Amino acid sequence: MTPFGFNIHIDPSIDPHAILVPPMITQPFVENAVEHGIKDLHENGFLDIRFKQVNKQMIIEVEDNGVGIHHSMQQKNDKTKSHESMAIKITKERLDVIHNDSGGKVGLEIIDKKDVNPFDHGTLVRIILPVVEQNTSKSSTNG
């Protein structure tokens, strides 16, 4: 595998010690970006992970400059396709639970960048979550 660059950007308005992000919410998309997007690039692979807060929403973006989701899906066999579909299905189910618990807006967008600009390539995944602040007055337990 060719080395690649990456950037993780956390908006300065976000206090990483006070805002909660569901565990493993970005993991399947980061893994897919590396494994299916930029792994086979010969050079200049890049992964950009961004955490932004807009009003009461957390927007997490995982963007790569790889082959794009459409091309990647064409290259996969049926077993891999169903595995990836399962990861998306599970993430959507988790987002539904978050929505039901918080009442806040949730969303998942997976965009092949070539669909937006025919000269671009790669995939952009956008996850929208309600901002949940850690309650520091109660003792927390890990379950």
UniProtKB/TrEMBL annotation:
Residue stretches in coiled coil: none
* Protein source organism: Geofilum rubicundum JCM 15548
**Keyword annotations from UniProtKB, A to Z:** DNA-binding, Kinase, Transferase
This protein is called: DNA-binding response regulator/sensor histidine kinase
State the Gene Ontology terms under molecular function: DNA binding; kinase activity
- Gene3D superfamilies tied to this protein: Histidine kinase-like ATPase, C-terminal domain (3.30.565.10)
Under InterPro entries, the record lists: Bact_2-comp_sensor_kinase (IPR050640), HATPase_C_sf (IPR036890)
Entry keyword DNA-binding: yes
